[in-house]
Amino acid sequence: MQIESTRFGRVEIADDAVINFPDGLIGLPGTRYALIAQTESSVFLWLHSVDDPAVALPVANPWLFFGNYEVEVSDEDAEKLRLEGPANADILCVVRASDRLEEFTVNLRGPLVVNGPERIGRQIINETGDFSVRQPLFSETELNRVRPSAPAAPVAATGV
Amino acid sequence: MLVITRRSGERICLGDDVTITVLEISGSTVRLGIEAPSEVPVYRHEIWAAVKAENQAAANASITRLPTPTESSN
């Protein structure tokens, strides 16, 4: 299918790349999203709404930034995700992007759990640890290694 | 808004499916037991509100470019 993204223009989404969030994302419209990558090497992906062309959130694998991060998925959440174990659970965290790298933050308290094979996603409240909803993403050392990427190339739909 | 008084051990029903029990009152804190069907999400309000605010802020960012580690882009 195609979406007319307000950010990226026309984007082709493979049908099997769509992730269903039956309960939506907290505070946002729509229940169907797809992960799109701007560049193959980007550590960030966009979780783009299939239902609303204006809704897209940057997301990232939290362990790329926080090696000691932990997520606890409750039995109720696992049941809704039809997860039988951690093997099929992909974890993504919502990134609040900014013009300034030092203002990037990530929500470690409300991660997205995706059952890859079943294409079901759910935003959960992570009850383990004391993780922040607004954790600064880049330490000073990392800031020296990161620069803004080139202007968005045509985006390609990817799976998780 | 409905304002009612409950004592320890008393309950509140929300519709047919949701029951809230006042388990214990200790000083300024109250322990509540919540029974609800699995399809009814139950959140602490401040966490729910914070996650909602972060989602909306993330979706509203005017950013269309995201940073790339220099190692992998060179």
Q: Approximately how much beta-strand content do the residues of chain A carry?
A: 25-35%
| Count of distinct strands of chain A | 13
Largest sheet of chain B: 3 strands, antiparallel
Q: What's the CATH class of chain A, please?
A: Mainly Beta
**Gap between N and C termini of chain B, in Å?**
59 Å
The number of helices of chain A is 2
Average of per-residue pLDDT values of chain A? 87
Whole-number mean pLDDT of chain B? 88
Relative strand content of chain B: 25-35%
Order of strands in the sheet with most strands of chain B: 1-2-3
| CATH homologous superfamily annotation of chain A | BH3618-like
Query: What kind of oligomer do you see?
Result: heterodimer
For the largest interface, the chains and their residue counts are:
A-B, 44 and 28 residues
Residue share in helices of chain A?
Answer: under 10%
| Count of DSSP-assigned helices of chain B | 2
Provide a short characterization of the protein structure:
About 3% of the residues of chain A have low confidence. The longest helix of chain A is centred in the middle third of the chain and has 6 residues. Chain A is mainly β.
Structure description:
- With 160 residues, chain A is mostly beta strands.
- Chain A has a single domain (2-147), classed as BH3618-like.
- Chain A has two helices and 13 strands, in the order E-E-E-E-E-E-H-E-E-E-E-E-H-E-E.
- In chain A, strands 3, 4, 5, 6, 7, 8, 9, 10, 11 and 13 form a ten-stranded antiparallel beta sheet that branches.
- In chain A, strand 7 (89-96) and strand 8 (105-106) form a beta hairpin.
- Mean pLDDT of chain A is 87; it is low at 150-154.
- By secondary structure, chain B is an alpha+beta fold.
- In chain B, strands 1-2-3 form a three-stranded antiparallel beta sheet, with no helix packed on it.
- In chain B, a hairpin with a 2-residue loop joins strand 2 (18-26) and strand 3 (29-35).
- The model of chain B has no long low-confidence stretch (mean pLDDT 88).
- The A-B interface holds A 7-8, 23, 25-28, 38-39, 41-44, 55-58, 76, 79-80, 94-99, 101, 104-105, 107, 109-110, 123, 125, 133-134, 145-152 and B 38, 41, 43-44, 47-48, 50-59, 61, 63-73.
